[in-house]
Amino acid sequence: MTGASDKARFYLEQSVPELQELERKKIFTKAEITSIAKKRSDFEHKLNARGSQPSDYARYAEYEMNLESLRRKRARRLGVKATEHAGQRRIFFVLDRATKKFHGDLALWMQYIEYARKQKAHKKLNQAFRSVLRLHPTRPELWIYAAKYALEVEGDMMEARSYMQRGLRFCKRSKDLWIEYAKLEMIYIAKIVGRRRILGLDENRTQTPQADMADNPDADIVKLPKITAEDINPDLAQDDSVDQAALQNLNSTPALSGAIPIAVFDAAMKQFPADDLLGERFFDMIVGFEGVPSSKKIAEHIVDTLSAAMPTNPLVASCYIWQPVAEVRATSPDFPRGLGVALDRLDSSAQRVYPRFPLLRRTIDRLMSFLGVQELDPDIRKVLLVTLKSTLGQLQMELEHKTGENGDEVAEVIEKLRSNGLHHFVESTMAWALRIWGKNTRLLTLQGTGAILAQDGDANK
Description:
The protein is mostly helical. The chain contains 24 helices and no strands. Residues 205-214 and 217-232 have low confidence and may be disordered.
């Protein structure tokens, strides 16, 4: 116990000059300094005694973080300068001791990493990444975090790829890691595309707005000129160092053409053959990158690969059906054409898919997402409502003689119908659902809620 007390006293003595300076500059009162010293003494004795826990270190670090935040606020208000790095140094000292003693505790490591990131202590953060990944190489969330930091904060895609590729050597059975690797590549492509658009590098220099209108004489919108870097700096128009051939070559590089996300998807499907849920996750992630030119090509590759491997799978069929409108906004002029293709695919796929319930369930969700768009064209809304009615009818026929575990999912459909204001569908769906799952708690709760809402509506009339 004496050794623990001596060690605690040694650490406390190191903070005396800092506390004296804070009192001298009137950032803290004498009573507050005494309270701080006592609190630190309690923590240090607890940490240096036998039986200390990770939570003791976490609380000590949290206390020092709050104290440092208060010190900065008071120093700013009083307009005085104090030792800026003393508090940060003490916090890192506590966290260093914590992670050395309890190197298996991920919560302590994450507290360390989050604090270093908040303080923009890049050297400390990189050291923490190296240490925690060496100690916990089979934790995919750590590789994902490190890779995201490398790209989003440091802008180092090579380092981000390195983290992902090393992570996959240790965690090749982690589906999340495969998805996040492909997502990281898509974020990188989106960043490059965005920068090129700002600089005007993706525009055809020989094409004019008038030529665009000539190519589409039936266009019912006015094409406005796009502002590029040449408009801001006319000297760029005379710069021959960037020619169209070079730009076309840049477009064909694996980084922009989508070859890398495709390779990641293919490798993932080799690890998880015939995994329809993983394939669907890849598809949903890719089509979420609206405005990235290569996303359509990647989505088509995913659909083609999945369809070849699982031609009758309902999840694969859902991706195939809705791919034409997956990246098109419901208010876009291209939406009606894409919707027509999607509905044709729905008709042709419905009979060959088994089981049908997952496809019908996803179709209903997709239709309701479109119907939730406020500015939707009235004619398109009518088409979607007719399709929704037909799909709900097919769902009823599919489940009429099955009393499995789909009651909660149908209840979820009813909840979404109600939240979208489709009350005429709610009543009919509730009626046949209760015939099949009359004792389902969730359905009965919804029925009671609906009755209360109806009474409130009548009272307000």
